[in-house]
């Protein structure tokens, strides 16, 4: 794990789980697999705190455990899984587009809680949806269940590894940690539950079925006594499946853009006939993007989507775009040139790009020191004498992608730190504004006059309002940038992973 | 070694590669030497591309910020514990009311704070309007609290303190002594380690 990744993990853990969990998590990421006592000793944290932190991390699928010889349990952190926390909003939004609000909330609850039983999810989501509905309306458990089943069927949620059912009761002592099992065929099996009920609002003024007393008592005290029907069957969001969806989306939209270009340069009738479809497919197959390949002529031609090539093209396009935005369009032209021709000498670059030598040199060196381009030596003689060696500029896509990915991690870490800094700088003002809002809200609830509300609002002066506006704008920008960079991370990681698998 | 000492005298100024091949001709002015590390914020040559806006962008942004807030409220967010102080030796007025949560915890982990907020705001108004009464309230509640702490078994209502009332600069959660999460972690352990 690079320092940049560890730094980013540290920021994410600290923002979402607090400093103690961050300390333990980062320690495990750095040192690898460790038993409980070693963690406590090395981090100087009390055993209690370490236990709490590990529970949280395991609950959220960020740390796994393994029983080693002599009954020692070792804990291991999953750095890449921690980085996925950046993508949570995207997963939730995708669920919304595919399965609307119900799906959105199901995935959100699963991500916020790490693992949950189906009955717990259904209940929680029904309650939340009921809150947003009109007075008197409630969300039925059955509807939420249906959406849950659909999510399971399409593999967007999956079962967590479970405790194997022991046939014979072991006479010996129980193992220090259970060995959880998981089987492919049961991973999406939804338990047969008959969840009957409706969501409940938090406001005690509504009629509840059970006639529960006011909100001061814990909400679920009555439910504690009922046995949970699917106890021990936990579900989690299946991130890989979402990634598959993102990848498909990226490819489809890239092709759609391409199709637009082709569209414009062809006379097209309004009905797509088989002939025209053929033409399109041939065009796609011949397209230098190489997304679609033709493999064989059976059945009029078999077309195949070349995923690896597609990902490669997307990664390359990303690199091109970065060069363009960072160094300018002339640099980008040189970059595309070297990409296309694979290897070029200094002189050739100047000639093909039609850029004067001095400028071309400057641009090439800028890209070289940024590691977008590399120099390859081709010796002419066995003694590798410099005067008799070709020096060719080339783009090594894999290593450039890795370099850019590393940069992305650093960027996001910077963005998060800056956001935290901005928030801290304005802490006093933020707290003041929150208090004022709270006062106004409660005064409105108890029916205050316009004049009184006005008075309270004026507690925040005009320049302070300005400051708050600026702060909000900046924080939004930083947040939006984080989301944007994560999209680039996704593309680059997908490409790198796909390349490594083929080796 | 002989060769190292020799390298300094002979063949000085020779590079391992041919300069011309890389494009630096003889007699070309080299760029000025760098005397300091590159600036922290190097000047931007080109303006960055605008961020995506529109419904999807706005929605995902709002989601992100909500999630961040939500996760801070969940029980998974562990705050550092405050060192235990010996209250026998310190003036009573320094003691801040510690938020006591209901000992009864359910297996379903839900955000604890939202139900309290309404109580929160009402308390705030009341306290803002009756300053004198507040001081009495505080001391009497402190007395109450001392008794309750000694008993250690009561299930109380939640009491949430606004920072400004006690005129401290610390966020109230600073004074959590971690016992709030005792019950939770037991539950957690049941679920995580089957």
UniProtKB/TrEMBL annotation, chain A:
- Outline the extent of the RNA polymerase III Rpc82 C -terminal domain: 146-261
List, alphabetically, the Pfam families matched. Answer: HTH_9, RNA_pol_Rpc82, RPC3_helical, WHD_POLR3C
Region entry Disordered, spans: 198-230
Which top-level group of life is the source organism from? Eukaryota
| Gene3D superfamilies assigned to the protein according to its UniProt record, in alphabetical order | 6.10.140.1450, Winged helix-like DNA-binding domain superfamily/Winged helix DNA-binding domain
Q: Name one GO biological process term.
A: DNA-templated transcription
Role, per record: DNA-dependent RNA polymerase catalyzes the transcription of DNA into RNA using the four ribonucleoside triphosphates as substrates. Specific core component of RNA polymerase III which synthesizes small RNAs, such as 5S rRNA and tRNAs. DNA-dependent RNA polymerase catalyzes the transcription of DNA into RNA using the four ribonucleoside triphosphates as substrates. Specific peripheric component of RNA polymerase III (Pol III) which synthesizes small non-coding RNAs including 5S rRNA, snRNAs, tRNAs and miRNAs from at least 500 distinct genomic loci. Part of POLR3C/RPC3-POLR3F/RPC6-POLR3G/RPC7 heterotrimer, coordinates the dynamics of Pol III stalk and clamp modules during the transition from apo to elongation state. Pol III plays a key role in sensing and limiting infection by intracellular bacteria and DNA viruses.
Subunit structure and binding partners: Component of the RNA polymerase III (Pol III) complex consisting of 17 subunits. Component of the RNA polymerase III complex consisting of 17 subunits: a ten-subunit horseshoe-shaped catalytic core composed of POLR3A/RPC1, POLR3B/RPC2, POLR1C/RPAC1, POLR1D/RPAC2, POLR3K/RPC10, POLR2E/RPABC1, POLR2F/RPABC2, POLR2H/RPABC3, POLR2K/RPABC4 and POLR2L/RPABC5; a mobile stalk composed of two subunits POLR3H/RPC8 and CRCP/RPC9, protruding from the core and functioning primarily in transcription initiation; and additional subunits homologous to general transcription factors of the RNA polymerase II machinery, POLR3C/RPC3-POLR3F/RPC6-POLR3G/RPC7 heterotrimer required for transcription initiation and POLR3D/RPC4-POLR3E/RPC5 heterodimer involved in both transcription initiation and termination.
Stated name of the protein: DNA-directed RNA polymerase III subunit RPC3
Organism per entry: Ailuropoda melanoleuca
Automatic annotation (TrEMBL), chain B:
Name the record gives this protein: DNA-directed RNA polymerase III subunit
**InterPro entries, A to Z:** RNA_pol_III_Rpc31
Q: Which residues cross the membrane?
A: none
Q: In its keyword annotation, does this UniProt entry include Nucleus?
A: yes
Comp. bias regions, Basic and acidic residues: 116-137
- Domain of life of the organism in this record? Eukaryota
Q: Does the record bear Iron in its keywords? A: no
Function summary: DNA-dependent RNA polymerase catalyzes the transcription of DNA into RNA using the four ribonucleoside triphosphates as substrates. Specific peripheric component of RNA polymerase III which synthesizes small RNAs, such as 5S rRNA and tRNAs.
Sorted alphabetically, which keywords does the UniProt record give? Nucleus
